[in-house]
Amino acid sequence: QGAGQAGKTGSLGKKPEIAQVIAPYAATGPEQLTLAPGQLILIRKKNPGGWWEGELQARGKKRQIGWFPANYVKLLSPGTSKSTPTEPPICQVIGMYDYMAQNDDELAFAKGQIINVLNKDDPDWWKGELNGLTGLFPSNYVKLTTDMDPSQQFALDYRSIFINMNPADSPQQIWSFFHLVFPMFSFFVSTLELLYKIFQKPLMESDLLTEKEVTMIFVNWKELIMCNIKLLKALRVRKKMSGERMPVKMIGDILTAQLPHMQPYIRFCSCQLNGAALIQQKTDEIPEFKDFVKKLETQKKKKRPNSTFHFYVKEKIQSDPLIIISIIENTTESHPDHSHLKQALEKAEELCSQVNEGVREKENSDRLEWIQAHVQCEGLSEQLVFNSVTNCLGPRKFLHSGKLYKAKSNKELYGFLFNDFLLLTQIIKPLGSSGLDKVFSPKSNLQYKMYKTPIFLNEVLVKLPTDPSGDEPIFHISHIDRVYTLRAESINERTAWVQKIKAASELYMETEKKKREKAYLVRSQRATGIGRLMVNIVEGIELKPCRSHGKSNPYCEVTMGSQCHLTKTIQDTLNPKWNSNCQFFIKDLEQDVLCITVFERDQFSPDDFLGRTEIRVLDIKKDQGSKGPVTKRLLLHEVPTGEIVLRLDLQLFDE
Fold this sequence. Notes:
Radius of gyration: 29 Å
Number of helices: 14
Oligomer: single chain
Distance between the termini: 61 Å
Number of strands: 27
């Protein structure tokens, strides 16, 4: 009966098409279907973007109609119906190696492909289905997907999206990529939030671990959630702004703009071994903790081991370049998103490299975490996270430390030298200190407070005294308009300080020079585009309040692909007047998109999201016509309230 009704939506006399689900799919909206392997679907409509509408009638449930990605199903041959179904899959496996079929009744597959297992009667040779083909394959060439770590499963889900896809000759293919990748990012964010809710939060509320131990395990978990939410919301706004069931033509520009915000991964992953080791130690030593973890793992919604979530996070960030490579390989060079995707790949690989470097240099990471816990840095305009990324030198590295004295007053200081700045501190003698506390000792009670704001090494000149052969181990540091005259504990110590500061300063300035040259080259290349967009970020209207007194400290991030501009932060207001000017070079009139995201500036926690909107350059051209600059008042999405006012002037070079 259902087939007859649905058949009326198609061409008169045309036989209804039946498809079988070959991979699970979770709906991301009420208009979509959730699919399970083996289900049969009556096809109602086919969208050229790779999405089909179908009718699903599961036993004991009301008939459902909705959309789903076409590559999650296979069409059955004409005449196949529910009365004569194919063998339902009993499980799914992943190929661990490439397998070439030796006989006609065998199934060939590549490493990483998902196979639906239909029969296991022979323990050595299983029967399976892949892309509509069935055959036998050796069971020792595959691994059950249920045996995999969630991180492996996550990467597998990504890889399975792109296997056997055709190159993108039109924006519809990018739409397919978007609607397949989006649920994966959404799932990852949900997993991060779930782990906080059922693992971190209960641990904090229990008496099983100290606050310091919980922090050691979860490090900056909230920052991980926030940076991924920002990416997810950017994708969600792109989908919304593209129009109802209209193709999403660009995703590379979003990835290019958002990947630099993923720096919290570096700190988390560099601490993952310590966190995992502490979980194992507490599990072995404290029966109550072991029972606590076991109880959490048996919760219905929690099917992955809590002790592996550190590696789950690292594997996810390492999967991102693979995803982007897969999209690039399936996108023609003539597609307007191709150049954005190449830039996104560069940023994803750079982030992976920084994460791997942080993991390798465990001692450096441990020392930076120790400094974070033992040095008070009050009075800075923004939070200083030692175990993070520098402004232009990659991950921060600890270089040297030791006692220093002001030459004139003999005031005792303690210096910490990093690859980007020198921090002078004062020792706070803790109560009950034995005087035997050592720097970087896990049991040390030493505390320090910042003496002066950090001295950045790209702004310094270090000198020895006129007579360096004197008995006093003195040296001078010139910083902008100030000179610090310091005394080390010995001549050898002075030599170490001077050499390390000089080397770090030279590297910093050389790196800055190379970055300026690269930026100049990029700007000159951009200037060869077809035009430029002059933007004045005028004001925000009725933004979402974030603070207890009903106000916010908002700022704007305006991007077009890798081009980015930040406004200043306006304090304590929901109606900021930024009046900030910037310009963006235009490459493709039809595809370039101006993206505006508003954030709340927080000093000691991740910046909060206050909304996002977009406007296509083509729409600006249509609105502007020959009238000159136009003023636009745009609604902010993904928040209950807020608008932004822009003044836009599109200048095309050939007009």
